[in-house]
Amino acid sequence: MAGVDQPGFKGRNSLMASELSYRRKPSSVSEMQQKKFSHLERKAYKRKLREEKLLAEMRKQKVIRKEKEEKERAEKEQRELKERCGRPYTVAIALPGSILDNAQSLELRAYLAGQVARAAAVFNIDEIVVFDENYNAKQDVTEFSGLKRSDRGNTQLFHILQYLECPQYLRKAFFPYHKDLVHAGLLNPLDIPHHLRETDVSDYREGVTLDKPVKSGKGAYANVGLKKDVVLNMSVPPGQRVTVKLAEQVTEKKNLNGVVVSPNEPRETAGLYWGYTVRLASSLSQVFKACPHPGGYDLTIGTSEKGKDVEQVDLPRFNHAIIVFGGLKGLEASVEADDKMQTDDPSEIFQHYVNVCPKQGSRTIRTEEALLIAMSTLSPKIKSAHTSTDNSKGQPS
Amino acid sequence: MAGVDQPGFKGRNSLMASELSYRRKPSSVSEMQQKKFSHLERKAYKRKLREEKLLAEMRKQKVIRKEKEEKERAEKEQRELKERCGRPYTVAIALPGSILDNAQSLELRAYLAGQVARAAAVFNIDEIVVFDENYNAKQDVTEFSGLKRSDRGNTQLFHILQYLECPQYLRKAFFPYHKDLVHAGLLNPLDIPHHLRETDVSDYREGVTLDKPVKSGKGAYANVGLKKDVVLNMSVPPGQRVTVKLAEQVTEKKNLNGVVVSPNEPRETAGLYWGYTVRLASSLSQVFKACPHPGGYDLTIGTSEKGKDVEQVDLPRFNHAIIVFGGLKGLEASVEADDKMQTDDPSEIFQHYVNVCPKQGSRTIRTEEALLIAMSTLSPKIKSAHTSTDNSKGQPS
Asked: How many A/B residue pairs have CB atoms within 8 Å?
């Protein structure tokens, strides 16, 4: 209270001025004029007015403070909601395309690629890296390879993975006939959130920009799998794949409006699984070197039956994780084949080198099986690394 | 010590007789004859002999006691080793054969069955039950089914599972040509411990009894995948599959000898995964009613995306567990189709009704994927239920 009174002592002149303004109010002036006041009475009256003004000021400050607190709390809640609903981190997997070369028929070869895509979809994988595990072996012309082209598996896996990730209504635009996709019609659909039917309602949709004349000042048209095309907020060359945030869904309007957003937005703001990107890496070391995230992968996990029991592994909080799988001969062979790797010991390359299936009944676990087994075990650990408030688990760098 | 002395008091006559035998020894007798002993001296000498004899007896007893203790300790160690190495419990899975009817080609139909067998092998499953999920629907003739025979999937899955479990060297004996097995050659091998090559060394081997004349008093011959046939310890009709414990592996002998044992023995005593049995069930309720174990399954787990998050489930110690998977329409449809079930709510039928993949990216998880995902999550829980010494987890009934 002393503090509130201080202005009166600090700047008396200014206070006097404000008192005068009070006195100038018609009611106060007339009140003053009507009565003859003594000097003491005038002084008391002035003090009373001053006190009232200060109290009013205090009340105003209190309301402002309260509003500010309210706003801050709302912002915090929003942030928390986004953190809870959105998913800031990404998980990638890497595997050699050579696993396809071991399939018994062309149909089963394609089916195997489909199994990889399904596993990625089930476990919300954001990026699949297909690496060449025979990087140096190919240069070694003395090795007998018959007529088999050892790099066919990589590109076919790459193509089928991309094809399956693409929403059905966009496939005609992006996938002309290709021999790699001959058996793609037999594969199981991924059925992921962005594979939307015409009647499905969604804030976001994947689309392709169309070669359709636009009015000046208006953006390009895009087909997002709805009856009507969407007018975008910017001009984009035709034939581009875009992620569109639909502004409104009023059906009476001639055109729908949409905003082009980052393909990461549905994941980051709404926690939606929005499919995966596919990348070809010429060797195992390129898996890490050509990482699309500026800081690289900050959590690397290798899987092998020679690794540590996964049950004993706790994962730290991370931004971008990658889980690497070996081929027929295991991850050891992939590491050995890569000259650029400083070591032949895979456990030195990865932060965690884990065995995802201790006590396996079969002598071998196939890569397509290992994908499901590993992700099933690692998923709860990934989740708990991001929900846990335990600081000892470390923060992402 | 008092106890050891007692024989002296109990049977004095017999003791005297033994003393006399001492005296009859030539050396003692000559000693006695050479010297003239007083009555007291003779008495003292006798006492000395008696004491020496008792001490000898005590030493003997001590050695026997020690040997007995040694033996008991060894037996206990053996028992503990068996408990540690052996696996007393079994894990079964049950799934509808109708999952095959959804495959896109005959080749992929067989491949799907192969995936089920592989998943069972990787996770040491002891029994696979193939149940008919359309038990009542089949009786409903008004339902449109086209030309599709809805029960074909069950028998084909049954056949392929049996075929893949059988060691390669026995397949000729047990699997003549059958249309269900046309594409079985394309399937991935299980590579489980009892699929032994000729050069592999193993205490146990699977075999088939042969139609070969035997000497009187000798058991039947069996082919166990070795160069030489094995003479069994009993006569078994030809063409039977037997589990043989090889008595010795001396290669010089004309014939090897073997003992017919229970197919459970390799698991129970050595903890070896010894393949699975396959059973057809005409409905979901028959999965439980026709259980081959006398007490039935004492742990039943149902899997569904409508179940409880598997991370929150702790399994009790059990003897015989069964994990049941649904088909295309989920376990709910299988329960509804079964009139014999008292309820339509699957969570009432199973002790645990779990969701093995919360936060799945794909709208659906296929049964063959669910097998790997579920077993990957449940395996550590099954293991810890049997290694944990925590009594609060409960004992098998």
From this structure: 104
